Amino acid sequence: QGRILEKTGLCSQITFGRYVRQGRKLGVDPKLFIQDLQFNKVPVRVYQPKATSDGRRRGIIFFHGGGWVFGSLDTYEKVCRYLSRESESVVVSVQYRLAPEHKYPAAYEDCLDVTTHFLRNAEHYGADPANVVVCGDSAGGNLAAAVSQTLAGRADLPRLRAQILIYPGLQALDFNLPSYHQNRGVPLLFRERAAFFALQYLNGHAL
Fold it and tell me: Is Flavoprotein tagged as a keyword (predicted)?
């Protein structure tokens, strides 16, 4: 459908994809305190359990997936609420800039800025700065890994406790690896689509 709309000039495939993937902000959660903020000018949504705690909680910084092109705070609202409730953690969901409007390294820079800000200010949100993890799925897993590698040698910040990488995209240089051939007919992310998303992220509107 996206290709048809693009050929007729009504909208691009990416615009259509964002429309069908858009989420909606859910109602009040009785177990969580949720607020929309900005960390270093990057929009974030912070989830804090309302229940009392004996000490400071774990912090989870979450980077959503979507091929660096799709995704928002609302599309991952249920996931982040679940993470915060079930793990009793403070969760920070990050609305990083999307490609192709903002090519590399915009998304990475946003995620890095949010992470450094939260590590420096975790206690303000009831989180333990020595117990902060980064987490992401797909493109978000790529961003989590990149942020972790960047901060590994920083002596001026608390060290990240862990990285949780959910089916992360960790390389975009070789689309002829055995896994691509073994799974070439398996939905959802075919080789051509993986290459498309990588090019959008790296080149943006230069394509």
Answer: no
Chain segment 75-89, per-residue pLDDT in tens:
999 999 999 999 999
Please give the CATH number for the structural domain made up of 26-206.
3.40.50.1820
| Cα–Cα distance, 38 to 66 (Å, whole number) | 21
Please report, as a single letter, which amino acid is at residue 193: R
**3-class DSSP assignment, residue 126:** coil
Residue type, 117: H
Q: Which residue positions in the chain have pLDDT lower than 50?
A: 207
| Chain Cα centroid distance, residue 35 | 17
- In this structure, what token pair is assigned to residue 34? 């949720």
Q: What is the DSSP letter of 157?
A: S
Of 120, 39, 25, 34, the closest CA to residue 76 belongs to 25
Sign (positive or negative) of CA dihedral 140, 192, 16, 98: positive
Q: Which residues contact 25 (CB under 8 A, 6 or more apart)?
A: 74, 77
Would you say 63 and 44 are in contact if contact means Cβ atoms under 8 Å apart?
A: no
First-residue to last-residue Cα distance in the chain: 21
The answer to whether 89 and 58 are in contact (CB under 8 A) is: yes
Look at the chain and count its residues.
207
- What pTM was estimated for this model as a whole? 0.88
Q: Any idea where the domains of the chain sit in the sequence?
A: 26-206
No. of helices (H) and no. of strands (E), the chain: 7, 6
